[in-house]
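Reply to dn_fold:

You asked what the input looked like. This is it:
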Amino acid sequence: MSIDLALSPEEEALQREVRAVAEQCSSGDPGTAAPLRAMSERGIWGLLVPAALGGRGSGLVSLVVACEELGRVDPWVGLAFGLFEIAGGWLPAYWGEVPEVQGVLESYLRGDGLCAFALEESPAGVEGLTRAHRFEDGDYLLRGQEVPSRGARIAARLLVVAREERAGDGALLAYVPARAAGVAVRPAALGGGGEVGLCAVDLEDVRISARDALPGERGGEALRSLCIRHKLVVAGVATGLAQALWEKALEAAASERGGGPPPAGRQAVQHALAAAHTRVEAARLVARHAAWCAENGVPDGLHAAIARCYAVEAATQAAALAARLTGARGRTATGVQPYLDAARELDTAGGCPESDKDGIAQSLGL
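and this is what came back:
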């Protein structure tokens, strides 16, 4: 099967749409939900939901493209959008014909039922996740402390990943109303502020119906697919962030310093900018390739892990270059500081980087 990494006309149109929304809604205040509301109003929503179910049916490459464009302007909004699309759009469509779950999908597509993803940031396994106790009638009781969830403060529901007691390593996925009794949401210390900032969620004896839970083997399968999509979202956002940081570095290099010539006139700076640009372009192609693989029956997650690792490293190196060229005094004036903060904190989004690299090494027979 041949691979064409060039964007289709539909994907290019989506790219322009998302870029316009992101730039128009940019307020300079990281983490505002205004771009998400605007995208919902314009129908840039439900990218992973088949058209037959009311979604846009665009696919994973489109999701990566959208996250990249949002990541160029506000990485936190890009992450929140991607995770909302997975938890509120893709998973209910995957789940099937369950009335309660279809209600989650319908409200999400209307734009009034955002669904935040509540899972520890290192989902290599289910050890240490929220615990789920099953009653004889099939209902579940959930207990968890300080579970990370981006955008939980504006979400109507939380998609909680739990481990069933006395069920080995079985994963349980469950939808929980964000304002249910026993649910407490508070801002986390790191992970960006604003409406879509990272939150810590406490679940204290939260009882849910069996109809709102996807347990057992199917729950584990869904979790693996969900984590792959999470990594693709991070890869897209990190690529957009790397692009923004490279642009900041280029702008700083072209500016005069104290009446002297711009740094861009020096060969060492030119080479550093060229190398950063090369990494950004490569990250973009690797992310699209990984999305294509996930959508075309390559389910092992290796390509998603490679894309996440490479894109985050590209953003980290672009951040170092931008910091060097703007200088300590210029970071605030040029608006580069929020991007530098995002590059640092993005490293653990979508999973532990060491775990991803372990998986890549194993694939090489090491």
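The chain is about 50% helix and 15% strand.
Hope that clears it up.
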